[in-house]
């Protein structure tokens, strides 16, 4: 299995290493650096790199490479999944930003009740306020083509839970329309057969935050696309100026407001600079990475936000082959775009009455508009 | 001490104070003899029983270290005292930590101590400590591989462990230490399969991977009948649909289509593995999903592999590293099983934000999935990709277009035109890649493409990428006859720039020159000589060699010439077109999901995935003795508590069982057995007893055998699980009924077997239903109603021990058994041939309600022969039957001889085609023929179906109107208790009880054997004795008759 682990930051320093068997020299990471150089971008570093005596399996998260050194055959996903879980755990302890430095949330006492009959829940949990919150979060992945028609669109959802309940509660969560869920994956606490036979989520929850369920909404249902983007981006062969104009507007929003809208776009290399005026929000253009980002905020249907202006192009260079694709982020509160609705949540096995809450949210996943 | 860091960290909080820093002693090396002596007495002090002496010794050692003396040879003695002491701590966490510390000290001298500690921990009370012991095994093994034999013993012991906590860890140890000892798995195979869902995620991956290998050595290939198709991938793909159509009865269908082969029958253990891993496709862990996917890919029949596609596509939403690995595997799978991923084509569409390596893999998959129907959409996608800013990706896209063009003839011209348009692209890389691909495409059909070649020839002026230039030159040379005027001109230009060209281009210039010289020597003789002269003095020896070689061949010299006569043949021989194929082709000889597969190279420690065996090894090796119940009860109790809670759903029979019972307490299993099995038991109990009796009578002459059986039965009763025992006294009845109704079946299958002689054989009904219980909840009903496609000889044995396994595992299962146990012979034995009419041969028959092995549509009929004449009857068999349309008979094997006074039984199957028409046939002996007929009561034409209340209601909703028959009746006083009602109904019709929320309602469900139409029966009993009987069935005739029969039974 994993022989050693190296943590490498974005500037290429090995800032932490851990060896489980014998010490493997740091020089093994040179192979990794080589691959990193070849890949130019961090995300293009192959997750599996063979070296003469070892195999390097890595994951990249929070701008840190977690490089595991392996000596013998092992399913690569086994290691990759493990490393991701390690990072998740770090995240739980140290928070998102604090992995490298800062305070820890490590307690002074050893945890107790670990050898519980239910492996994912410790025994003897006690709360004065018993509460169970569920967030139904759906993400729309879509590719929209030039003319505004949908090439692919699908909805992926998760139900994240924050459960703080005393004792060993046994919960059941049922949906009004469970048939919507086409493909599901569960936290190990969910009783699979109950789901198979009755489409009910029945489980003894872990204590605290966890992801109860991820699901995919069946492909037969047409996906409502809540926003549209009107764009007019043109380069001319002779001129050193290009026109740029985009407008974002709401489409099928079920009467809700669209918030947190951010438009990003990777401009072609030939673009030197952009001079743009937004009708709303703020925008930035990084001339080095050629990344345009426009933070819109809320969309007011009466006054659609737009971004207009010109691009200055490299003189003499021919016009780029491809127009940039536009990536969209947005959020819609209190709406699950698939129409999924939780019917009820019941608790068995404990006497008290818990406080229950369910929140819905729709977000853009990988939402892309080709221009 | 290289292990120092690991060691000192592991030591962490658990180890005692003053525990060894010895290993680090910086001053090691200065050895004085006096030190040795002193060490000896220190060792002695440490070995004594007195704590004070030990303490003193430790103090002195610490002092030594403080002064920088080497005390490392005292290390084992200290470890023994400190760590080993903790190994006996009453707290299991501390015991486990102590063992972990001990096993993390990688110093050879402590090997014996470690070995002892592991052995001890392996039989610890606490499963957590046993798990830690399993973890320590690979560590010790890597420290000293000579311990292998001893470690294998420990592994063997731990493999037998029944807790989920240990299973994953011990299999890991097995994989590291002795993966070749597959024999250790046999006895634990079924247990591992059944525990799997409750094992923690990491353990699941390891177990699944190991079981994949195991299955490859122990079972037969489920695709052996399809292998003919597989040889031709194209055909296989189209064939797969028809395979899918075969679906449910694939075995059966395969058997009929290929009569020459022995029909393939899947080993029940093989099926067990597939069934128990399937739910894990829903795991949140990508590693587990991948493990199951590869298991299905390598082990499942073709029609079933499809289920993994959806789960794999889901993983594409995960982190990019996960995507990378999954896509690699999908790419390999999509070559072999294209149909599987086709519905998910759009999930592989590429986003501009994907990392390049992901883009390229997706492209690979898209190319593999492209076919005649979806190629327009795929090409349209590709068109967008070509305009991407990511040039590596564009190049890969062009390659992909080339591959689509070669694979799909219809779009070849479209692709070619598209590629030609790309030739005017501004990006040179794009052009170059296009040229290379065009070259390959043109090679397939050069004649029609003179124009394109001309176009390419013009490009030589502009394009600089060597590979592209070389490709163009090769094309012109190869097809110079199609461009007779341009070719010499190209050569002229190339000759001019020859010295400045790259090596591959130079080689192609020589090539072109040679070909032109051979076809058009008038125009090109001088040019060729010029080029060859330039090449002769080139810096590169390859080019000089080539020039010399070419010159000898094409320019006839004085002495040579033997070859030059054939020069034209050599240079202008028709060359086969290149095959553009995926780099993932044939990668599946590596186990999917493995590191080796990903790298396409064998990694260290990779275990080859064996080929399927030609002949199945003996399946009985997996049979397990049922554990002695008394000895086990203690353990079981603990297990019940430990039982992680998934498994409670394992025993879940009817969904009405509410989740409000806390699964970890015993209350659930209690409530279940009282509510459900209660009814089931009572149904089986009553008429069995009388039936039993009369069987006993009827069989009179077989008394010897039945006595034996009686004994066996008694033995078995002892083993009846508590869950059942405590519930009701009636279980005895049901128990014996199962064994008695089974005894006939086994008795004649016994004849084929080598007397397996164990009571285990007598339990099949419970075995079947227990395994069925699992089946039902996991798979669909089809599986349950047709479990009969099994080999005639082995199934009883196998399923028996399967049951035994299950009994050992969960109590809930045991309590389930009676409720599912349908075989209550509704109608007792009936006469088929009277003793007098048969001239001494008396024949009776009974409907056994067992599924008929061989054909699930047949009703199995037990025939009892007895010879009351004084001569032996020979050659008993079924003569040519005269049957109404649709009805068919599976004859029983000929009974060679029946001695006077002896009796025999046989089973035959009759497909009544869902009608109550009589099956007429002849019963022949060597001398006589008797005309007999069997007419089934309508209730025997069906088999019970297991469904939940909700399903029942749903199905009932579909069968309204014409399909519903309702009658009112009054129940006599004698027939008001649950118990009797249920018993009467199930005696009349072979239906299964459906759990029901209200107390006055009874529901039963079944399917007709031939058409598989549902038969749903509801009895709504009102307090005053009035009742309403409703039957819902598509088969209205059957429904009507059933209503009549049931009312008769109830009101009598």
Automatic annotation (TrEMBL), chain A:
Belongs to the adaptor complexes medium subunit family. GO terms for biological process: intracellular protein transport; vesicle-mediated transport. CDD domains: AP-3_Mu3B_Cterm (cd09261), AP3_Mu_N (cd14837). It comes from the Eukaryota. It is found in: Endomembrane system. Gene3D superfamilies: 3.30.450.60, Mu homology domain, subdomain B. Keywords: Membrane, Protein transport, Transport. GO terms for cellular component: clathrin adaptor complex; endomembrane system. InterPro entries: Adaptor_comp_med_subunit (IPR050431), AP2_Mu_C_sf (IPR036168), Clathrin_mu (IPR001392), Clathrin_mu_CS (IPR018240), Longin-like_dom_sf (IPR011012), MHD (IPR028565). Pfam families: Adap_comp_sub. The keyword tRNA processing does not apply. PANTHER family: AP COMPLEX SUBUNIT MU (PTHR10529). This is AP-3 complex subunit mu-2 isoform X2.
TrEMBL record, chain B:
It comes from the Eukaryota. This is AP-3 complex subunit beta. Belongs to the adaptor complexes large subunit family. Subunit of non-clathrin- and clathrin-associated adaptor protein complex 3 (AP-3) that plays a role in protein sorting in the late-Golgi/trans-Golgi network (TGN) and/or endosomes. The AP complexes mediate both the recruitment of clathrin to membranes and the recognition of sorting signals within the cytosolic tails of transmembrane cargo molecules. AP-3 appears to be involved in the sorting of a subset of transmembrane proteins targeted to lysosomes and lysosome-related organelles. One of its GO terms (biological process) is intracellular protein transport. It is found in: Cytoplasmic vesicle, Clathrin-coated vesicle membrane; Golgi apparatus. Keywords: Cytoplasmic vesicle, Golgi apparatus, Membrane, Phosphoprotein, Protein transport, Transport. Residues 771-917 form the AP-3 complex subunit beta C-terminal domain. Residues 672-683, 727-744 have a biased composition (Low complexity). Coiled coil: none annotated. Transmembrane segments: none annotated. The keyword Signal does not apply. It is a peripheral membrane protein. It holds the Pfam family Adaptin_N. PANTHER family: ADAPTOR COMPLEX SUBUNIT BETA FAMILY MEMBER. One of its GO terms (cellular component) is Golgi apparatus. Residues 1-30, 634-773 are annotated as: Disordered. Residues 659-668, 684-695, 745-754 have a biased composition (Acidic residues).
